[in-house]
Amino acid sequence: MNAKPQDPAEFAEKTREISRHYRLVPLLHTLGVHVVSIDEMTGKQTLERLHPLLPMKPGWVERREFEYLRHGTLSLISGLAVAMGKIVSSTMAPTRNENDFAAYIEQLIDTDPQAEWAFIVDGLNTHQSESLVRLVAQHSALDDALGKKGKSGVLARLASPAIFLADPSHRIRFVYTPKHCSWLNMINYGSVFWFVVCSSVEILPAH
User: Fold this and answer.
1) Where are the alpha helices (DSSP H) in 31-123?
2) Which one of 79, 136, 152, 195 is separated from 189 by 20 to 30 angstroms, measured CA to CA?
3) What is the value of pTM for the model shown?
4) Which residues pair with 46 in a beta bridge?
5) How is the chain split into domains, by residue range?
6) 134-176: per-residue pLDDT in tens?
7) Are 18 and 184 in contact (CB under 8 A)?
């Protein structure tokens, strides 16, 4: 998609910031800093095949019956460790709300609780939520007056959570891609084939 920034200068700075993180990944990795590119895929069909696969044999590829049962949809959240170029964590759930995303981030942080983390994400509201702010504050032992959503402190204004979460002085921080710039998020660029392969979840019959 073509970005249409309202403020070209701000847009340029945001793209430079993401590029700086990518450029510094080898150095950051040696220093123990995790740079993780994260995105979601919603509406993944959960399908159950009615019949078992027919195995390969000389002259034939593996074959599958076309009939299936639908079991609703799931939402995928996945993270790409930029330094290693591989998926480090994925979750699937019926929903994709702020609690789901915060739980996913906590799961990642718990793999190296004392490390520094930089998460590259888009500007979705669940990536700038109250749950996420409280999670980061808790894990970083920050003394900021978080306040109450819509009333006081960091959570008083809609923009405040994003400012708090993107603070470069924090041990756990988020780097936000500009609007319509999913191509700046490496998990989308480097894992297109992986996303296509995972466009549906299949449950094979037990027999």
Assistant:
1) 98-109
2) 136
3) 0.80
4) 201
5) 8-41+78-194
6) 999 999 888 667 877 777 777 777 678 889 999 999 999 999 9
7) yes
